[in-house]
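Troubleshooting entry. Yesterday's outputs looked truncated, so today I'm pasting the complete records for two proteins to confirm everything comes through intact. If either block looks cut off, that's the bug. Protein one:
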Amino acid sequence: MGFRSRIHKFATKSPSRAFQTLANRELWKALARRSEFGLATAGAAVGVAAGLAVTAMSYAAGELHQLIFGIGGTDRLSSAQIEDRLVLLAAPVGGGILLGVLLFTLARKRKRQLVDPIEANALHGGRLSLTDSILVAVQNIISNGFGASVGLEAGYTQLSAGIASKLGITLRLRRADLRVLVGCGAAGAIAAAFNAPLTGAFYAFELIIGAYTIVSLTPVVVSALVATQVARFFAGNEFIIDVGDFGSVVPADYLPALLLGTGCAGVAILLMQGVAFVEEIARKSSIAPAFRPALGGIVVGLLAMISPQVLSGGHGALHLNLDNVVPVPTLIGLFLLKSVASAISIGSGFRGGLFFASLFMGALLGKLFAYTAPYFNDATLTPVIYAVVGMSSLAVAVIGGPLTMTFLALEITGDFPITALVLAAVITSSFVVRSTFGYSFATWRFHLRGESIRSAHDVGWIRNLTVEKLMRTDVRTMPVSATVEEFRQAFPIGSAQRVVLVDDNGKYAGMILVPEVYGGLVEKAESSRTIVDYARYLNDVLQPQMNAKQAAALFDKTESEALAVVNDLIERRVVGQLSESHTLRRYSEELDRRRREISGEL
C-alpha cells in the first residue's frame, strides 16, 4: 500500500484519530508561537537535526578522503602521509570538474542567488530555502572531500539553519522568532563541529542573530547543548581540538599577545582581499564559471604536492603542528601554502568556509610569533599558548565574533588565564579590522555583491516597508493646462491640501499647494494665467520600490511635507501620494516593534 493510500485510509477509517493528529500539530504551532518553552522545544529539535547534519556531513567527507586518497579510517587528510603524488594533484582537479558540472546544471535550472544564514536573518526575516541549503552542503562535501582547502563549517551552518528555517516556517513563527530559530541551527552546527556549546551559542548571537537577548538565550543554548551531545554520541571525540600541555600565563604576556592580535588583523585583511582578488581575476577572464573550480584544483593539487597539509580544512595539520616543535622556515612555508590554497579554492568557486582554515593559519602565526621570546622580558611566550592566541585572533578577524572565539579558547583549553589573554588579543584584532577594513569575510563578500550588510541585524523590515505599502492612492489631479480660475472652481479652499499636475500624456508635472493658489489671489488674479506657475517639486518624486528610509531622506532633502509617487522615472505615471508625517510615524512604529521583540515584550 502506497504512502498516499495509507494516509487516505487513516483519514477515512479513523476520523477521530486524524482530527487528533491535526489538533496536536496546531497545538505545537500555537505553543511555539506563544511561549518561550515552545520556542526552546523547537530549539532542542533543531539541535538534534544540527548534530545529525554535522555528523553526516563529516562522515561523508571522511569517506571520500579514504576512498580518494587511500588514508586510514582514523587519519585526518591534512596530517596523512600520502606518497602518491599523482593522487594529490588529480583529486582536487577531479573535485573541481565534478563541482563544475554541478554548477553548470544549477545555473541552467536555478537563477536566484543562494542565500546564507547571515543574509537570511538580515534581509529576509530568517527565511531560507532548505533545497538551496542542501545544495550548498553537497557542494561543500564535494569540495572538502576531494581535498580543496576549505572547511565544512559553512555547509554545517547552512544545512542546519535551512532545517531550522523550514521548521519555523512550518510552525508559522513570527519574524523575530524565526530569526532566533535560524540562529539555533547555526549554534547547533558550530557547537557540534567543535564540541563547544558556548562557542556555538555565541556564534549565533554575534554572527547570525546579531544581538544577545534574554528571549533568545534559552533556545539558542538548548540547541547548542543538544547538538553537542548528539555529535558526541555518534562521532565520539572526533570534533575535539586537543592542545595538550600549554603551561601558564604571566602578566608580561599581554603586550606580545596584543601585538600578535594586531598582526593577525593585518594578515586577515590580506587574506580576505586575496580571495576577492582571485574572484575578480576569474570574473574578468573569459573562463566560464563551470571550468574555474577545475583550474583552481590544479593549483591546489600542485601546492598539495609540496605539502599535503594544505588539503581540506586542516584539522589533522593543526594537531600535527601543535604537538611537535616546528622550525621557523617550515612554519612560514606552511602558512604561505595554506593561505594561497584557501584563497585559490574559494576564489575559483569551491564551496566552503575559512573558519577552520583561519584557526590553523592562526596557530601557525602564533607558534611563529613565540620565537620572538628574546625580545620580551619576563613573558613566557609558550608556543602552544600563543598558538591558541593566534588561532582566536586570526579567526575573529576573518569570521568576526570576539566572544565566540574567546569561548572557543576557553572550551578547548579549560584555562581562564589563557582565556583572558585571548580576550585581550581578539578585542585588539577585531578593533583593528573594524577600524581599517570594516568587514568580516562574510560581510566583505556581501559588499562585493553590492549589498550594504555589515552584520545579521534585521534590516530587511526596512526594505519591506516600501513607499508602495505606505502611500495613499486617492490622488487628486489637475491638467497642467488649467487656468487658475478653473483650478479654484475645481478645488475650493479647504477641499484639499495638495493637487498633482499631469500633462496631456498623464505624466507627472508638479505638485500644487492649494493654500498658495488662494494666497496669491490679489497678486495673480488674471483668469487666463495657468496653474503651472504654482507648480513645485517638478523633478522630486518617490517611486513605489523605495523604502521608508529612502523616502525620509528625500523628504529631508526637498523640505517637502508630501511628494507624489510615480511608477517609474520614464513613464512618470502618478500612482499615489505619501506624506512625511505618515512615513515617519510608520517608521517609528516599526522601530518600536523591533525593540519590543528584542526585549521580549512581544
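Protein two, checking that the full record survives here as well:
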Amino acid sequence: MIFIGDLKPYCLQLDTSRAMQYKRLLEQADRYKQMELPLEHPKESTTYMGIAIANLALAYRLSGSEQYLQDAKRFMNTVLSYEKWGNAHLVNVDLSASWILFGLSLGYDWLKPYLSEEEKQRIFCKIRHHAKVMFDYRRDTYGSGWSTNFYQNHNWINMTGLAAAGYAMQGQAEEADTYIKGAKEDFARVFDLMAEDGSNYEGVTYWRYGGMWLFVYAHLLKVQEGIDYFQSSPYLKNTFYYRLYQCNGDFTRQMNYGDCHDRYSSHPVCVYYKVAAEYRNGHAQKLGNMVVKEFLAQEAANSKVKPGILPEAIFEFLWYDPSVEEREFDDLPLARYFEDLGLLALRSSWQRDARVFSIKCGAPGGAKQWREGWKILQDEGIDLFSLSHHHPDNLSYIFASGGEYFTCEDGYNRNLMPDNHNVLLVDGRYTDAQDVNDVYMTSVEQRQKEEGKDFSPESYGGFVSCVKVEGNLAVYRGETAGVYPRHMQMQEVSRVLVTDGLGFWLFADIFNSQKSHIYSVICNTDPLPCPQEKGYRYPMETGDIRYQVFSSAPTETRQYEQQVVSVMTTQEQDKLCRTCIHTLSTDSQTPQTSQVFFECFTFAGSEAKVCCQQGMLHLEWNGNVYKLTVGEYDAGVGRSPVRLQVTRDGAETAEYSL
C-alpha cells in the first residue's frame, strides 16, 4: 500500500499499543458522516476533502466498517464532480488541488479491491488529469512562483501531491515516473537548502502547516523507494527543537513570529510522533502525547489554520511508535540558540508556569536562504525568494508567562507597518517599503533600483554579533543597521539583551547615524500599560511587569492602539484575522545623531532596584548587581562597545565585553 507498505503490523496493535491513535482515527472518520458536501465547488479552500478521503480509506481498511467505505466514496465522487479544484487564486495548481490530489491518490490505491472497474477508471482519469495540469503549470512557470520557491510551503505541498499521484498511477500511465522524478529532484534541492539547525523563517504556524509536508514527503519516499531523508537531513533531525523552544510557558501555544493566524495553530502531533519514531526521541513522544491527551480539543476549537489538527489523525496513527519512551524536558538546557535565524529562546524552567522569552535578528529568510538564494539567482536565474510570511522583525522579542502573554505580535498581516513589532524605528521607519505584504523583498527591489549593480545582499539584513549563556545568565546582541533606508545613513542600530533566569531583562538600544533623526523604541503588548511615577506598570495575572526607559537624550512617550485586520487566504475573502495591539512608543524629543535607550523590565515582588547614572544602567536583584555601560561608537568595527559587569552576592565581579 502506498505510504503504508504492509498494513498487517498496524492491525495487530489496534487493541493494544496503538489503541489511542486508532480511536482518534475512527473518531475523525465518524465526523465525516454528518458533513454535507456542496454539489458545486465552494468559494473556499477544499483542502479538507483530500485528507478526509485518506482518513476514511484507512479507517475502512482497519475496521471493515461499510460506513467508512461509503463515506470515502461520497467524498471521492464529490471531488470527481468538480471541474476545477480550488477557488479564486491559482485554481487547479495550488493547495486545494494538491491536498485533494494527495488524498485521492492514497484513497484510490488503498480502496482498489473495493471499487468497481467503473469507479477505478473514473478516479484514475481524474488523478491523471489534475496531475498533468499541476505538472504542466510547474514546467511552464519554472524559475518563479511556487515551482522553485524551495523554502516555501506551497512548493512542498504541491510537489507532494504530484508525487503521490505519480506513485498511484505507476504502471498505468507512462508519465507517472516523470512526476515521481520531478518531485525527487525538487525535494533533493529543498532538503539540501534547509537550515541545518531546524529553524523556519515562516514561523511556527507555517512550520506546523507547511513544514508537516516535509515529513509527509520524506515518509512517502522512504516507504516507496527506501530513500531516507530522516537520516540524511539535519533539518528534519533538529527541527522539533525549534518548535519545542517556541512553546509558550504552558505548552498550549507558541511564540508567534511571522504570519500566525493565531497563537493556537502550533501542534502537529503527527510530526512529534514521526520525530520520536525516526530518532528515538523521547522529548517528541512526550509532547505528542501531551497534546493528544490535554490540548487537542483546545487547539481544534481555536485554530484558524485549516484543515487543522483533527484531520491529521491518519498521520498520527501511521507515525506513532509505541516503543519510544517519553523523556522529561528537564534534562534539556533552558536556552537554545538557532543561528540561521539569529533566534535565542529562553525558559525559566520546564514547568507549566515558566517564563519564556525569544528574540531574533538575522537575514531575510534566514542566513542560509539569503546566501544560497542569491547564488542560485546569479548562477541559474531562479528566483526562489518568497518572504511574505517572514515579518520585518529584527530585534523584536516575545515574552509569555505560563499561559499569559505580555508582548503582542501582529499575527497574520498582509499590510505590514513599522510599528507592528517590538523593533527600533528611525523617523518612524524600519524598512524601505511598508504597508505591503512581502516587506523585505519589496524593500530590496527599491534598493536595487536606487543602487543598481552596487547593491550588496551581504550588507542587507541583520546579524547577531554576540551570544553568551553562562548558567542562568544570557547575553545577546543583534545588529540591523543595514535594513534601514540608505538615505538615513544609519551606521549602527543594535540591541543588547541581558537577563538572569528571566528574573528581569534589560535592553541597551543603540542608534548611531551621520544624520539627525527621531529614534523610537516600541513596546507592543497584550495588556494596557498603566503610567506610574517612574515608568509603566503592566497588570498581569502571573505577576505585574514594571517597564522603565532611560535615555542619553530627552524622550517623550506615545500610547495608542493598533488594529491589524487581514484576509488569511484569497480563497476565502470573508475570513479575517484580527489582532489588537497596545503600543507604547518612547521617542527622542528632538532629532539626534546618536542615542542610547536602556529598557528595563522587572516583576512585581522581585524587589529589583534600577537606576541610570552617567550612561550606566545599574540594577540590583536577588542579591546580585548588574552594570551595563555603552561606550562611544567605533567606526572601525561598526558598533559601540558595551560592557557588562555582574557581581553575585558580593563575590568577585565578572566582566563581559559585548
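Both blocks look complete. Sanity check on protein two: The longest strand covers residues 572-588.
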